[in-house]
Prior knowledge:
The chain is mainly alpha-helical. The chain has a single domain, classed as Nucleotidyltransferase, domain 5 (2-Layer Sandwich), CATH 3.30.420. 47% of the residues lie in helices and 10% in strands. The chain has four helices and two strands, in the order E-E-H-H-H-H. Helix 1 (39-51) crosses helix 2 and helix 3 runs parallel beside helix 4 (84-94). It starts with a strand and ends with a helix.
Amino acid sequence: QQMHIIQLDNSGAHTAGDITVPGNIQLLFQPPYAPELNPIERLWKFIKDQLAWQLWTDLEELTSAIEFQIRQLTRPIVASLTGRDSILQALCVSGIF
């Protein structure tokens, strides 16, 4: 069977008293306050970096700028930010994996 790693933060919603995890699944809990290990955080940072040093006159203009940046995302960009290799690199750097 193929091995799967499910990466979880330490939210109470991700813990249970007594569950059985199949042998081909490993639960990997992030340490607290480790956004660099969360794939979506890298995606949000990428979007925020695209919007840095810009000023908007109102919330509608800011919303439009964010929507534009999201529409510019391609599969390769998203994969590079959230894919297996970037996750493994972050886990190795953090000393977890």
